[in-house]
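Thread title: Can someone regenerate the structure for this chain?

I was given the following input by a collaborator and told the matching structure tokens would be attached. They weren't. Posting the sequence so someone can regenerate them.
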Amino acid sequence: MTTTHVPVRTPPGYAAAGAPAAAPPATGRGRWPRPSTARARIIGWVLLLVLAALGVVTFVTWRLLLQDTNDRMTAALVTEVEEFRSVVDEGVNPRDGQPFGSLDEVLDAAIAYNTARPNEKFLGYIDGAFAYQSARSDGAPPVLAGDAAFTALVGAVAAPVRATYESPAAGEVLYLAVPIDFAEPQGRRGVIVAAYLADAERGPAHDTARVMLVIGALTSLGAAGGAWLVAGRILRPLRDVADTARSITDTDLSRRIPPGSAADGDELGDLVRTVNAMLDRVETGVAAQRRFVDDAGHELRTPITIVRGHLEVLDPRDPDDVAGTVQLVDDELERMNRMVSDLLLLARSEQPTFLHPETVDVGELTEDVFGKVAKLGDREWVLETVARVDAHLDPQRLTQAVVALADNAVRYTAPGTRVALGSQLAGGQLRFWVADSGPGIGDADRDRIFERFARGSSAGPRSEGAGLGLAIVRAIAVAHGGRVLLDSVPGRGATFTLVVPHLEPQT
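Best answer:
Regenerated them for you:
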């Protein structure tokens, strides 16, 4: 009998089954660090960058020191000459407080009044000839006093001159030559020269740059050694990945990368966890494939064995025996055909063309499915509620899934018992459910019954199918981006709910 009711009932929803158990931790094997091409390249590039940075810093520092030295020498020369001029302009000898009497007194007093710094020279010239030179505190021999070329260059200048001179003995010399304006009865002319031995003055800057290079090179080598060790620890997860990959065989997929190979939260730690998770999925998939092949072989072997056994004992002269055997062979071949069709359907469920979605009136779809399943058996069929919305989905596949659930409910319920269907939109999700009052499903079977070739172990009539119906239902739900929920209490029936996202119709 078939009755239709419309009470609103919220379908039960349960969280998905718990996450699969984590794989047991693998123990790492002790080993000495091995040379790594990637490791050497990393250290080489790091060392190259460090040395390049060191070269740039040293060069910039050296140039700044030279610039500072040059500026300091130039400023000192100007200052010294200004002091010379102040002494000459006052016209009073600072030694005795008397007016200057001769050009010799002027040069001698001016040069003696100023204290020469290291690498600094004060020289006096009269009528183009060397006359005076400041004394050096370090007692070094004079290098410019006897230099005829320098004397010819500065001895008779008529106006202040600042320039450089390449001395054969002292290298580059930076000088400032200023004529002395002192009227002398003899009519002689004098020149005061303040000079710096520039190469010698720049020596500390050169020494500093050389020290920086030496210390920097030694530091870089030490840093490269430390970086070699650090790079080894950083690259260890990659070596563990390679070692783990090499250790995995067709028969042993249990090896995992040691979790301590990388720190938590960094990129290599994410790599280790991702690869281990991938290996978990691969192992689970291979195990499922093996079980599938074993189960498929077993399920297909059974009808083949039955057919072969009956053909072996067939009496061709007995028409009744031949007719019965033909009928049995036809039934077994039909069962094998359904099994192969279901297997092909499950294989196609993983392909993009499995679904052909279109705009569907969910209410009409639910009512059409209800009309179809009401013919499956003598049950009290109840349409509980209908979702009056449009959605973008594959009506043929959803009909196939709901019909499979209804057929499963008929198999495990007695005539006249209640089987309810319905659909509802809740929380942005569409729910299609089939509820029966059969023997229910135990906790041990909740996850297993959705696997291929699995059957429930609860009390009740055993299905003659291959155990692929619920696997197909789940494949259809997953293809729509949803899932299948199960609410069941042993002895009180079961409710299967397809939950799929509510996708708005495409315009």
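The chain is about 45% helix and 15% strand.
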